[in-house]
Design a protein that fits this description.
The chain is an alpha/beta fold and 449 residues long. The chain is 38% helix and 13% strand. The strands form four sheets. The chain has an eight-stranded parallel barrel, surrounded by five helices. It has a two-stranded antiparallel sheet with strand order 5-6.
């Protein structure tokens, strides 16, 4: 490992997942919340700068391509993530900016150009969260002139090809291709421009891309996938992988598996960072933290939960007569013979607890909340838990999905981060200027030996 990579791997890394007033479904109803947060640029700048002041690796923006009347309010009315990180790149200095974009409903050339544009504007701080798109509303295909959503396996086949094409386009130009030789009349060296001429099962793309490399060459690749093809995609291409596991043994097993898969693809596993998704709640006491959770949970309406689950399970179950406090076991969900593919992660989280997990709890799990009691309580308790997960090989970092913004972000930054900095487990300053440098990664330029 390089000295920079060795140093970065000693520390705990953090992404801040930013969505409106917070990941909690009812966060917008909180008395302190700003309901227009998702479409207020000044608010987004405030959040990004708070994460930057805490020296996080990056902010992370999710996305969805279809909504309906039962969708999480945080995603009903919000900016396009690529457009937002492009704008944020101009008003922040060091923090990374990761945007989600779908390989199922975009075209490689358009995406590659937009992402590299944002990367240039930010000075090399952009990342791409590769997704194949979960169809929570059962209506995504209808927004893209398609009759039905791609089958799970087909989505991942297309995704692999999409990434190959995108990377090929980002490699259109050598690092020193642009000469800008005014005297000789040479704007660029033609021998350092490569046409892609890609022909595959899903895409036929000529290239070259009409924008050259950024200071980090091209955006960092991030990805979340628990299925076999999802893990293979991440192990082959990504440097940041998102996961969600309830305890250290399961998290460690996943991390070891994904590192082994990366090594099988000929990659250095130390260049992969596994970020566990958590929803930390920091307070002066554990009881106060639990009270804050209960306060938000009480703002979720029962009808909201039941309407969502009725549609999510697409008529396989009838939730009529049940309340949101009914358990998963009482609802009959465990009897569904073939649940949706994207139910896998949620199913793993509630396995063995179907008699105690409520429909309201399940709703939160399916739509974003990642509660874990290891990360709920005092700053010292949360810092100790983060250090333990890191030391025991369960995580290289954490994707922080705050329930209520900006309060939970501010509490974490002011309470937990200083404790980790004192232990040498969190950076006090950025050592580089690009997102890849925050992870100790060196850009790979075309033509490099």
């Amino acid at each position: 490992m390089t000295q920079t990579l060795t140093q970065e791997r000693r520390q705990i890394h953090f992404f801040a997942y930013l969505v409106g007033t917070g990941i909690h479904l009812a966060s917008w109803r909180h008395q302190t919340a700003f309901p227009q947060a998702s479409i207020d640029f000044a608010h987004q700048v405030k959040l990004a700068k708070a994460a930057e002041d805490a020296k996080f690796d990056a902010i992370f923006l999710g996305d969805s391509l279809a909504i309906n009347e039962t969708s999480n309010p945080g995603i009903l009315n919000r900016f396009d993530p690529m457009g937002l990180i492009t704008a944020l790149g101009a008003v922040t200095d060091r923090i990374g900016l990761i945007a989600t974009s779908s390989t199922s409903y975009d075209e490689p050339f358009n995406f590659a150009r937009a992402a590299l544009t944002a990367d240039h504007i930010s000075g090399g701080r952009v990342g791409w969260n590769i997704v194949t798109t979960r169809d929570l509303t059962n209506s995504t295909a209808g927004n893209f002139s398609a009759s039905q959503h791609f089958d799970h396996s087909l989505r991942y086949q297309r995704a692999q090809e999409f990434v190959e094409v995108t990377q090929g386009l980002w490699n259109s130009w050598d690092q020193d291709a642009f000469l800008h030789d005014k005297d000789g009349g040479l704007f660029f060296d033609r021998h350092k421009l490569t046409r892609l001429n890609y022909e595959g099962e899903f895409f036929k793309v000529a290239g070259p891309l009409n924008i050259g490399p950024s200071p980090q060459h091209s955006p960092l690749l991030a990805q979340a996938g628990t299925s076999v093809p999802g893990q293979q995609l991440g192990a082959r291409f990504a440097n940041a992988l998102f996961a969600s596991h309830p305890d250290i043994p399961q998290a460690r097993q996943y991390r070891e598996s994904i590192r082994a898969q990366a090594q099988a693809f000929g990659r250095n596993p130390d260049e992969l960072y596994v970020y566990q998704a958590i929803s930390p709640v920091v307070a002066d006491s554990r009881e106060e933290a639990l009270d804050r959770i209960r306060e938000l949970d009480n703002l979720i309406t029962h009808q909201q939960v039941l309407d969502f689950l009725q549609e999510y399970f697409a008529g396989q179950l009838d939730f009529t007569g049940l309340g949101a406090d009914a358990t998963v076991a009482q609802s009959g969900i465990p009897t569904v013979a073939q649940p949706r593919t994207d139910f896998r992660s949620a199913g793993e989280q509630i396995a063995g607890r179907e008699d105690e997990v409520t429909l309201k709890d399940l709703y939160s799990i399916l739509t974003g909340d990642k509660r874990n009691h290891d990360f709920i309580g005092t700053p010292q308790h949360v810092a100790d838990s983060l250090a333990r997960w890191h030391a025991e090989g369960a995580a290289d970092g954490f994707n922080l999905m705050f329930s209520l913004l900006p309060q939970d972000l501010e509490r974490f930054a002011s309470g937990v981060i200083p404790l980790l900095q004192e232990r040498g487990l969190a950076r006090t300053e950025y050592s580089g200027t690009t997102l890849k440098s925050h992870l100790g990664l060196t850009p790979e330029w075309k033509g490099q030996p």
